[in-house]
Amino acid sequence: LVRKSTVGMSESYDFLFKFLVIGNAGTGKSCLLHQFIEKRFKDESNHTIGVEFGSKIISVVNKMVKLQIWDTAGQERFRSVTRSYYRGAAGALLVYDITSRETYNALTTWLSDARMLASQNIVIILCGNKKDLDADREVTFLEASRFAQENELMFLETSALTGENVEEAFVQCARKILNKIESGELDPERMGSGIQYGDAALRQLRSPRRAQPQGTQECGC
Ligand SMILES: Nc1nc2c(ncn2[C@@H]2O[C@H](COP(=O)(O)OP(=O)(O)OP(=O)(O)O)[C@@H](O)[C@H]2O)c(=O)[nH]1
User: Rounded distance, CA 92 to CA 114, Å?
Assistant: First the structure.
């Protein structure tokens, strides 16, 4: 199998996962997405209007996974718009700000929305963001990790400012989804799973030994 990205052609991947980033306004969702994709802090971040979009291909346990990420507005007035994007998401980063108890208290609402409106099997990682502001912390690591355990969420504290644990959050979530596909717990072909096969996986299924001829066009969506 020739990966087109390695020869300067358009991208190739085994799976595409639809991801959401949800949580209260100001918790750093847009900055997390920006740090993940651009590997730097987004200096001037304004409130997200509705929904923003980003995508990136990562390597997870020998598979190339394209994450298609929807960064939703945290502000209440956009709630009806953002809710319409939940459907068919395979994974989500549920974000609160460790320096704001209010954003932590809102987690149960976000969680019930996600479980109700996205895929039933959605894999969620709780992210306690702004880890760099430890002096202003209002929520302890222990308290949040208990909440995560009780609600079957993975959990990390992150910093979109320093980049700490940002890539890890996306990768851990993707890895859990891949594990569930491999164990048969998740069926990528089920409607609304939030998972699609990429052309790499399809080529393997169709002709396991033949390499893809170079120069083939694809839409890359
Ligand atoms: N110190 C610190 N500040 C951060 C971090 N992440 C985000 N911020 C700041 O927090 C503010 C809000 O960040 P955004 O990414 O716009 O927040 P958001 O969750 O996308 O907000 P909405 O789009 O309104 O939902 C900005 O002023 C960022 O600079 C972080 O990890 N550490």
Answer: 8
